[in-house]
Amino acid sequence: MGLPMRLSRYFLPTLKEAPSDAQIVSHQLMLRAGLIRQEAAGIYAWLPLGLRVLKKVEQIVREEMDRAGAVELLMPTIQLADLWRESGRYEAYGDEMLRITDRHKRDLLYGPTAEEVVTDIFRAYVKSYKDLPLNLYNIQWKFRDERRPRFGVMRGREFLMKDAYSFDLNEADARAAYNRMFIAYLNTFARMGLKAVPMKADTGPIGGDLSHEFIVLADTGESQVFCHKDLVEMGAPGPDVDWDGDLQPLVDQRTALYAATEEMHDADAFAAVPADKQLSARGIEVGHIFYFGEKYSDPMKARVTGPDGVDVNVHMGSYGVGVSRLLGAIIEASHDEGGIIWPEAVAPFDLALINLRPGDEACDAACEQAYAALTAAGRAVLYDDTAERPGGKFARADLIGLPWQMIVGPKGLAEGNVEIKNRASGERSTAPLADVIAGLSAKAAA
C-alpha cells in the first residue's frame, strides 16, 4: 500500500490571502488553495493538488469521448505554418497566434487549435468511404496569445483542451456525428456535477453554419443566459443513451427550448417563453461544437472515394472542451466563504483525515487504522498529520474543499468516537471509528 499521503510530506502551499490581481472567486481560491501558481501572464504551473483535479476532469472527458466512439491520438503543440497557409487561416487567425521561427528559418506556430494538423493526418491515411465515419480527438495544451489574459485559468494564454474532429462522407452523416458529440457533452458536464445549458452560437473563426456552446450556470459567470427553465432541469440523457440510434430527437428536444443569449440580442425569442418558464442567469462557456462541412477538406484536399467511385471532400466538425477552464467553472459554481466545495467526481482526494494531536498514541493509531481501511476500500485520503493548531487545520480543509473530513481527537476517542463532516452541507456527526470507516467505504463501493 505504501506510505500514507501525509500532509507533512506533501507539497500544498496554501495562502491566507489571494493576490490583489485575482479578480474572480475561482482565481482567488485556486491560488489560495495551492492548485496553481502564475509563472507569466496567463501561464500557470499546476501544483500537485491542482494537477490531481485536472487529471480527474481530463479522465471524465476521455471516458465520454471513448463511449461516444471517438478515438484518441496526440498531436504536437508546435505546428507547421504551411499547413495553416494551405487552409487559408495563417494570416486570418490574427495576433492570438504565437508565431515561431526555428533555426532553419522554418515558420512554425504554437497551436491554438488543430483542424489543420488532424486534416493532414486524415488525408495521409484515409482514402475510402469504407473507412468512415471517423472521429479523432486529443487532449493537448494549446496557446492563444490573449491581449488581456485574466481571471486565472478562465482566460489564460496556455490551456489544456480536448479537441475532437469528425470526418464523414456527407452532410447527413456529419450532422449525426455532431449530435453524438452534443449528447456526449451533456453527459460529460453532468458527471462533474455541473448544470450545462446548450446554446446556439456564432461559429467565429472556426467557420461553418452550425454551432452550440455549452454554458455552466454560475452566479459569477461572465455571460448573461436567457433560457427556458426546462432546459436546465432536463439534465443529461444518462449512460443508457443509444449511441447507434437516432440522436436527433434528443438534440431537438433541448434546442427547441433554447431562447436567447445576451450576445445575440434575441429579446423577442425570450419574450415568447411563458413567464413561469423564463430563466435569467449567469454562465461560463466550457465547451463549443461546430459543423463546418468542407471548410478545411476542400482547400486541403481531404477526399475519399465514394461508393460510386467518385472522389469527394469529407464533411467535418470540431468539438472543444476547455479541460483546464473547467476547474475554474466548477469552483465558480461550487464554493462558499470557507473555500472550494469539490463535487465528489473531481475532488483531488475523497477525504481529509485530520489528526488533532499527532504524537498521541491513540490518535495516531486511529488515523493509521482509518487510512489503511479507507485506502483499501478505494478512497483517496489526505492525512493531515501536521503540528498546526486545530483551527488552522479546519480552515485549510475547508479551503481545499475535499468532500469529507474525518476529525480524530483525544476527547472523542475517549468516548469511542470520531467526528465526520460533509463539506457541501456542513453537516457534522459523531460515531464510532469503525462505523465511520464502514460508511465511507460503502460510498466508494457505490
Give a description of the structure.
The chain has 446 residues and is α+β, with helices and mostly antiparallel strands. Helices cover 32% and strands 28% of the residues. It contains 13 helices and 23 strands. The strands form six sheets. Strands 3, 7, 8, 9, 10, 11, 12, 13 and 16 form a nine-stranded mixed beta sheet that branches. Strand 5 (98-101) and strand 6 form a beta hairpin. Helix 2 (48-67) packs antiparallel against helix 5, helix 2 crosses helix 9 (323-333) and helix 10 packs parallel to helix 13 (433-445). The protein is globular and about 80 Å long. The two termini are 22 Å apart.
The Rg value, from CA coordinates, equals: 24 Å
Helix content: 25-40%
- Estimate the global geometry from the Cα principal axes: globular
> What proportion strand?
25-35%
Distance between the first and last residues' Cα: 22 Å
For the largest beta-sheet, the strand count, sense and barrel status come to: 9 strands, mixed
Mean pLDDT: 92
Uncertain residue segments? none
- Secondary-structure class: alpha+beta
Give the SSE map.
Blueprint: H1 25-32, E1 36-40, E2 43-46, H2 48-67, E3 71-72, E4 78-80, H3 81-87, E5 98-101, E6 107-110, H4 115-125, E7 134-143, E8 158-168, H5 171-191, E9 196-200, E10 210-217, E11 223-228, H6 229-234, H7 248-255, E12 258-261, H8 267-271, E13 278-293, E14 303-305, E15 311-313, E16 315-322, H9 323-333, E17 335-336, E18 339-340, E19 351-355, H10 361-376, E20 381-384, H11 390-400, E21 404-408, H12 410-414, E22 417-422, E23 428-432, H13 433-445
Parallel strand pairs: 3-7, 19-20, 19-21
Antiparallel strand pairs: 1-2, 4-6, 5-6, 7-8, 8-16, 9-10, 10-13, 11-12, 11-13, 13-16, 14-15, 17-18, 21-22, 22-23
